[in-house]
## 1
Amino acid sequence: MEKTNLLCYTGLMIEYKETRHTLQQKQISDLSLYSAGYEACAPGHHYGPIYRAYQLIHFILSGKGVLEIDGHTFQLGAGDAFLIPSGKIAYYAADAADPWCYTWINFLGINSQMYTYQLIASSPEPYILRGLDTQKYHALIEQILSLEGTATARYFKGNGLLLQVLGELFQDAGFDERYWGKNSVADETKFYLDVNYSEKLKLKEVAHNLGVHPNYLTRVFHEKYGVTPKQYLLNLKLQKACQLLRTTDLPVAVIAGSMGFDDGMAFSKLFKKTYSCAPSDYRRKEKAAP
């Protein structure tokens, strides 16, 4: 029996999910629509901290809210869009006095994360695009929400509208292909580590992906940033772990695993060596602080 697409209404929220293809099928395609929707949020309504396996773009139509991601906090309003790449832990909440109303589109695919980071790289603020005609994007997403026809027809129409949304966004963001990937080896390495810090990375693999020798990569990275790539990565993992300890109730073992540590004890030992206290003690002190 052919699967059908889902159109869900919950209070002031409407969401369309493409269900003709499985998540696995979407992930191995170049680009595939996952869902789209619209919500007029209640005051203080929030999501997270949470991470998802697909790319998210929210366009704010009215009102205000806040996004917290990667240690950054952004105050957002009408005309802004925020982008959350897959695998990133994020928290966002509507303003208590003037809650936002937004529309969103989510997608997957082999190149979906690259497209998302190309958009992010086009903005002076990470994860944020400002000064957009968000009503234009709302009109395109409304077409997705009102799709008719067979599941196959809706699949193709939905993906066509996804491409239109991204095409408009790349144009509005001023993305310039001439400068993408033209950074120095040190910058490329830092960007790679910033994106993939939660993975079990090996320096040889990173160097291979960038087409350079590991010794050369280490030397140019240290010259620019004052630390080796390995130390930078460990520091980054620990900073992200601190953020999760402060903002979530996830078990220490889960946090360690999400940072690419197989051994929770090794993570705790490294954490204590760096911060002079165990992860559980760090969480207790941070949450007790006024």
## 2
Amino acid sequence: MLNSSDYPALTALAAVLHSGSFEAAANRLSVTPSAVSQRIKGLEDRLGTVLVLRGTPCTGTETGRRLARHMEEISLMERQLAQDLGQSDKASPVHIPLAVNADSLATWFCAAMAPIEGLLFQLQIDDQDHSADWLKCGKVMAAVSSRDTPVSGCDLHPLGKLRYLAVATPAFIARHFPDGLTPDALSRAPSMIYDEKDRLPDIWTTARTGRRMSLPTHRIPSTHGFVDAALAGLGWGLNPHQLLDPHLATGRLVPLSPDPLDIPLYWHVSRLSAARLADVTEAVKEAARTCLVQ
């Protein structure tokens, strides 16, 4: 069992897993790397299990991640206590691990984080269909996800829909779709995916044609890179409409179809953290109300 004497070691553990190295953790804690190593080694010896996998970067074992998450919860409680006592200006910043999809980060999620003081957000970027998996394995406290059922042990808050348009340059459309969005043309025209988890082009083409097909794809793991690639005529892609407005207005990009693809998003937050992350949840919901399709 843990006790209060383990807090220095838990703090060191969390610092190593956040920063990725013993040296960076030592700088954060104003101690030597040797002191950080000794604290963690002492805790490992007492618990009889490895907590940190040494490497570049250092990563945590399952037990190590759980203990670091426990320390984050304690830090949140201390922050809340400092606020209740009117001493929030003296509280140390708390690291909050969250999972969010790249398109939300590029369009609206920064507006949710900006008003929150005293928290240092540690973001894991993953596809909206998979971001909730980070909650399942206890690596984050909350996640933006397209999953419409609550992760076990979590509260679910509907946020709205992120609207996508399939776009390309007029020259690209004239070259690859002279007869319109036919299945044959779609099976030949270069398209773009974010990564191997990106299902949006498949969803969109299936809705347009009524059948699944194999698409030739460029893999471009960057939301803004998607827009740049479309502007360069590299391929067609589905982009958040917020990023497209200036290019649609000038005619540099043109929709392949007037029909958008709306992806519902939800905020999943661990019930263990929900009360202490209430201000974060409200900020996320407010930003979503402003920026997403309701």
